[in-house]
Structure formats: structure tokens, C-alpha cells
């Protein structure tokens, strides 16, 4: 009986290790950060979210995935004109942040353009 139990545990562990190694090398995830601007915070958010979706599709093509999924991930705001504003001060971020299933978006008033938003996501596929 004890031998049967040891054999069962060994086979179960071997099967789990085998399943873990069955994932193709091309599978994985990538962080996406997309920034866009517009005349209003809403339009800038929509543009940056659309940009994030396009970036996820580009990752899918580049990595040869059959599908791609996205989930929201908060990232540091990424200003366009880093010579003018190298970082976005936390106190100028427009609240609330816009969080969907696919993107986490933060917006702020721009220096050169009216409004800027950065959307973050994790794109995963296989």
C-alpha cells in the first residue's frame, strides 16, 4: 500500500511538471504603455486606450500568437515632451483614473497639447 501511495505521488508530480513545461516558448505577457493627446480628457483617454489595443495586436503579430488578451495595469504617466516636462507631477493628474478590464488610464493637462493620457495594460497570448 505504501509503495502504491509513493508511486501515485511521484506520477502526479511528474504529470504536473510535464504540464508546466507544455507551454510554448512564444507564450507569455508584455507590458503595454500607450500615450495620446486630444482636446478633452475623454478624447485623449479614448485615443490612448485605442493605441494600447493596437499595440497589443502588434505584439500578437510580432510574437506569432494565435490570440491576445489584455488586462489593466497601472503604469507611470509618460509625457510626450520630456524636454518640457520630464515627469508628470502626481498633483496634476485628473481624478478619477479610468480603469476598465483592459486598460488603466491616467490623464493630465498638457504643456504643448490640451490633455494627455497614458493607458497601461498587460498583453498576454499564445
TrEMBL record:
<feature type="signal peptide">
    <location>
        <begin position="1"/>
        <end position="27"/>
    </location>
</feature>
<protein>
    <submittedName>
        <fullName>Uncharacterized protein</fullName>
    </submittedName>
</protein>
<keyword id="KW-0732">Signal</keyword>
Amino acid at each position: 500500500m505504501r509503495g502504491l501511495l509513493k508511486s501515485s505521488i511521484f506520477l502526479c508530480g511528474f504529470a504536473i511538471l510535464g504540464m508546466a513545461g507544455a507551454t510554448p516558448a512564444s507564450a507569455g505577457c508584455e507590458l503595454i504603455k500607450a500615450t495620446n493627446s486630444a482636446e478633452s480628457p475623454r478624447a485623449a483617454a479614448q485615443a490612448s486606450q485605442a493605441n494600447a489595443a493596437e499595440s497589443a495586436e502588434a505584439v500578437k503579430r510580432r510574437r506569432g500568437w494565435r490570440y491576445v488578451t489584455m488586462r489593466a495595469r497601472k503604469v507611470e504617466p509618460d509625457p510626450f515632451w520630456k524636454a518640457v516636462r520630464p515627469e508628470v507631477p502626481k498633483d496634476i493628474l485628473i481624478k478619477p483614473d479610468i480603469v476598465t478590464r483592459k486598460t488603466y488610464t491616467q490623464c493630465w493637462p498638457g504643456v504643448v497639447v490640451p490633455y494627455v493620457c497614458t493607458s497601461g495594460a498587460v498583453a498576454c497570448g499564445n
